[in-house]
Specification:
six-stranded mixed beta sheet; Multicopper oxidase domain-containing protein; globular; Cu-oxidase_2nd; metal-binding; Immunoglobulin-like; 7% helix; 3 domains; single chain; oxidoreductase; Cu-oxidase_fam; 6 helices; seven-stranded mixed beta sheet
Amino acid sequence: MDHSSMKMEGMDHSSKDMKDMDQDKMKGHESHSNVVSLNNSTGVNEVNIPAELKRNNKDEVVYTVRAQKGKTEIFDGVQTNTYGYNGSFLGPMIRLEKGETVKIRTINELDEDTTFHWHGLEVSGEKDGGPQSILKPGEENTFEFKVNQEAATLWFHPHPHGKAAEQVYNGLAGLVYIEDDHSKSLGLPNDYGKNDFPLIFQDRIFDDKKQLNYSAAMNTDGTIGDTLLINGTLNPKLTVNKEKVRLRLLNGSNARNYTFKLNTGDSFLQIATDGGFLNEPVSLKEITLTPSERAEIVVDFSKIKEVNDLALINEDRSVLLPFVVTDQSGETSMVPKKLNDLSLEDKEMDLPVTKKVELFGMMDMVTINGKKFDPERIDFTQKQGVTEVWEIYNKPDMMGGMIHPFHIHGAQFKVLSRDEKKPPENEQGWKDSISVKPDETVKIAVQFKHKGIYMFHCHILEHEDNGMMGQIKVE
């Protein structure tokens, strides 16, 4: 397919020739083809489990979320300057129920502008928390919405243009759980912090004073560190019983991709994608997540024979999370053979492509459809409640290119194809972010349930800050 001659919506090409790029700018790009390894977790610290945020009152569901700065003891005896929600570092878990009406009060207690973006939540554009919804220091905003989507693991983070990467890096990230009657009826492990664990993976670089010095660490092609934090915990371990354990994996890193697997080679079951359950559990030995992607997996620790030195590792065998398996048998839970009823309808498969998105470039030369983000420009329009097919193409550059994780605000979409082939089984569920390899074309079916202006962008946070972002107006 000749992507350079497309005349679809948004395809006004003005991409610069990459040959003009200074050679010294190549270093950041190379860091993605030769990624620095993570230090192995020594497993000395039990992984922190985010607190569940308490509701302000029972009749009217009101949560208060404050963006704050503070100090956190990440390293023994050292206070590191950090950001957090309702605390000094990272944030709480907010639990929502499908069908309920929720009020959330957001307060900016930082010394700089921020926003509160509800990643994966289907809300109207003015409640989504994109870069157009700035809260200045000391400002607050309360918004109300009805929860209309199915059970899922979502998250929230800041989205001020040009500052999102640094604010996430400093610690602004929290979790949103949606539950519904169906999810409660499945019999899955769901005892929070006991056999149902959220795991937020974030790599960082600490300076010689054990500080998060973003300006020193920052790479315009995506900041990658050598030190892994899981839920903000350095050198983490997870103690589990001999039972089925549900792990909700979130790649909360600025730019690093993770390929998760057990060091024993044992398989696990993936039960959910970004936005909900798969139709059936998928047995895997490894799973790759790019920044902002989520996956829920179930590991049966009663079936794994070699439990000594058991760990979750990365593709280069870096030890991410050692497991300590107790002698206790734990709860009896199950993974049903049928989890959901999500189908690709013939009419969706037969829809023509109406939106073409070309991801291109590196460093600060990144573009979508040859353009950088302009808050005054609307790139696409779409009707509320109407499904359209978007085609996302990752155009290689002179160095071959890199994976771009593509995220759309305000919607969960279905993956129709990768290079005209059926997507893998574990991507046949609701998604809000999708990994696109160089020279790969991904087609997705997108429907917005609400009106407003939403962002679509690369979720390498430095690329987003550098303008690899567009806007769609839903009418």
